[in-house]
Amino acid sequence: MQATEMRIDAYDGSERLHPVSVALGPVGPNEVLLRQTAVGVNFHDIYQTKGIFPLPQLPGPVGIEGVGVVEAVGAEVRSLRIGDRIGYAGPPFGSYASARILSAEKLVRLPAHISDEDAAVLMLKGMTAHMIFSRVRRLGPGDSLLLHSAAGGLGVLMAGWAKALGARVIGTVGGRHKIDIAREAGCDEVILYKEQDFVAETLRLTDGAGVDMVCEGIGGDVLTRSLECMKPFGVAVNLGQTGAPLGRVALADLGPRRSLSVAVPGVFAHMRTVPDLQAAADEMFAMAASGAVKPRIGLRLPLTDAAEAHRRLASGDTVGAIVLVP
Description:
The chain is of the alpha/beta class. The protein is built from nine helices and 18 strands. Helix 3 (153-164) links the parallel strand 9 and strand 10 (168-173).
């Protein structure tokens, strides 16, 4: 089978992405051939094009998240059948493709009520929310969350999930056009971080008490400054460095006086070590089915426009997630 892959041949950024026609080899005994229908776009993909997350070799395909339909199954595959709709996230890299051969153990079946494009948003971002609220900190009624980038692809999912758990959600956004999106996703209050000091505003909104949890993927001093508006025994979670590398956090600044924790969890480790990947994904899909978690797709582009998708994502002007359509 011939497939189109979006590859890079050097770590010079997303402009190096170009389409290549490749012949897919025979399906191994524990593998499936997947015809892809939607591909999720993530900052991780941009980091791949820059060599921050190096590929196994160059030239090579990028991307970590996709969904599609099973076209062929290996002789020893029992969990999947031809025609099944499936999704995945994580290594091996190369989701920017029209078709792939993947190990069956890395794939999960999609429920009928989840569209392919929504699934392409949920597989990485939705499972990240699952990881945060099932493994890092279980929020409940009376808890509070400061959620940075609340109108982004991950932010809207996390806002809805935390709200469904009964938590109070305070979101930050970079522009007024994103306020309503964050509120619709589940934020109780929204802070314009370019116009307001988010630390002072969070403390004002919580009557000086602070929040139980902070989630951010911006990096720089956002994480360290967020520590200033947290309750004792709160946890600050970093999920990426879209703005700047992480600053140093001195252990002495965390406790015992302040009694804080910092977590830098990885969703790939979560998906690799969760006892039952399909069951975990089904929990995540159930949150979407309930209406609590609402995937928001802000931009759809053809697979061959992957470089433009990266440019738009890096600009910070998009809302929701970006999906490539092979």
